[in-house]
Prior knowledge:
The protein is an alpha+beta fold. It is built from twelve helices and ten strands.
Amino acid sequence: MSNNGYSEHEELIGIIKGYSSTSGTHLTPIPSLFFSRQTREIGPSHGVHTPSLCIVVQGLKEVFLSRERYLYGPSDYLITSINVPITGQVLIASDTVPYLALKLEFTPNQILEVLTNAGIQPVARNNAKRAMSVNKMESALLDAVLRLVQLLETPNDIPVLAPLIKKEILYRLLKGPFGMTLEQAAIDGSSTSHIRKVIDQIIKNYDSPFRVEDLAEIANMSVSSLHRHFKDVTAMSPIQFQKKLRLQEARRLLLSGSTDASNVAFQVGYESPSQFSREYSRMFGFPPIEDIKRLKTATNR
């Protein structure tokens, strides 16, 4: 229990409500800490999920990594070690009881700093693990998260105390069931860190074709090892990974109204507009123009 008699979750609900009065994602004065609020169950959203800790304090959310489903609510936390394209959907939300959540992003260097400060000398391993996991919330982790969020009430303390509490949060995550995966994603020489470099390369050049042999060279692996470890981490192949990035960016461009579907297809790397339309429909359920009209109608309701 916190000092004011409320539970940690109740206090988090109050603070997040205060700093996110409208639906959407809100950047806070604490670096890399974001709040989310939704007042209705909305259709699936698509994007690249960054290395982060995500906590739902009110409501329920599902995330798909390829075909794998991750469901989490107030008693859980979602942790991600590497950039991966996902599909997410808020399942429980209303005007009276809005969906409320927070996201704390981190980097491999921040993980390494915590490992060094803890006197831990991790060994690089050749056993890549899935980049995403849902785990049961632990009281010590929730307490640290609450203390970080409470700093919003004393902004002068943020520059000094926020980095320290964030280190504590990362330390507790490293001590938890996903700790080894976080560690291996951060340290050089592990199979997971090699896959992270390949992922960064694909994201940077998502609109250009690649040779798998070149990706294998970046990873310092054989082609067969690259495919195996890449799928272990992301639940998809490099080609599938790139396709998701292309289609997500295409949807973003179409929603912005900047150009037509054929131009967008070429812009994100497709050589055939018809192939683009087929794969877009397969991913989003509707052809490009119909999908964008549907999304804009839903947004304007």
